[in-house]
Amino acid sequence: MEIRFANSPNEVKGMTTEALRSNFLIQNLMQDDKISLVYSHYDRVIVGGVKPVNQSVHLPNEPELRAEYFLQRREIGIINVGGDGQVSVDGQSYDLEKLDCLYIGLGKKEVAFTSSDANNPAFFYILSSPAHKEHPVQFCKKTDAENAVLGSLETSNERTIYRYIHENGLQSCQLVMGLTILNTGSVWNTMPAHTHTRRMEAYFYFDVATDQRVLHLMGEPSETRHIVMGNHEAVVSPPWSIHSGCGTKNYGFIWGMAGENYTYSDMDAVDINDLK
Ligand SMILES: O=C[C@H](O)[C@@H](O)CC(=O)C(=O)O
Ligand SMILES: [Zn+2]
């Protein structure tokens, strides 16, 4: 598991493209029959990806956690962005089709991931944060998630937001998680942008065509930077940073947060005219 420490806004201002990418961009999350994990010191969130092909892949107990098992003091949200797959939790198996979500609370010991078809494997994106109370395993299909249509074609940001783990959905200690899908012809996410210093956020872009890219925007509203991203890549947004993106074509992304509060709508909006 890769460990990444936090950066101050002043440090980030002076970063080169390469430094921005090595601190915030997470690549190669989906590797055949492997689990990839990055531990971020922003709210101690772990970002990961699992692509089981020919065998089941287990959630390991990472030495850095100094725990008896991964979820001893953590919770985890899982969303499948690939073919049909299964997640088994202490022997109980759950079927996850594309864009279904599973929440696993603190205390569960054995978590394993499998794909139904090696020729069309599941791609599980995972996000884990520290937890202090046990919540049961909860499952949500995309069709059952609370959703809201935002933006317009006129401003190239017509999109549907699906909320899975949140105040009125799957219950957690601090994890908030869902996804956003842009309509054809819309390329902007989260514009107007916002910050929420109470929570960090991570984005994972999916359904980005191989010959297309998303220019992800980060930084303080008056000091924006961009990171060019491809399919199945994640990016960590510090609590003081905007997180927004513009694609060369429409795409989808999973967002997830952890931190001080649990309120999806708690955002400090940034006026487009104030961006620099
Ligand atoms: O704090 C909330 C997050 O930034 C995202 O949910 C925003 C988003 O998906 C969008 O506007 O498209
Ligand atoms: Zn946000």
TrEMBL record:
Identify the Pfam families for this entry: KduI
Q: What is its EC number?
A: 5.3.1.17
**GO BP term, example:** pectin catabolic process
Residues annotated as binding Zn(2+) = 194, 196, 201, 243
User: Would the keyword Zinc be found if you checked this record's keyword annotation?
Assistant: yes
| MF terms in GO | 4-deoxy-L-threo-5-hexosulose-uronate ketol-isomerase activity; zinc ion binding
Q: Which reaction does it catalyse?
A: 5-dehydro-4-deoxy-D-glucuronate = 3-deoxy-D-glycero-2,5-hexodiulosonate
The entry's keywords: Isomerase, Metal-binding, Zinc
Name its co-factor(s): Zn(2+)
Q: Does the keyword Zinc apply?
A: yes
Which InterPro entries did the record assign? KduI (IPR007045), KduI/IolB_isomerase (IPR021120), KduI_N (IPR027449), RmlC-like_jellyroll (IPR014710), RmlC_Cupin_sf (IPR011051)
This entry's comment on the bound cofactor is: Binds 1 zinc ion per subunit.
> What HAMAP family does this protein's entry cite?
KduI
* Task of the protein: Catalyzes the isomerization of 5-dehydro-4-deoxy-D-glucuronate to 3-deoxy-D-glycero-2,5-hexodiulosonate.
Checking PANTHER family in the record gives: 4-DEOXY-L-THREO-5-HEXOSULOSE-URONATE KETOL-ISOMERASE
Q: What family does the entry list?
A: Belongs to the KduI family.
Query: What is the protein name given in its UniProt record?
Result: 4-deoxy-L-threo-5-hexosulose-uronate ketol-isomerase
Q: Its gene?
A: kduI
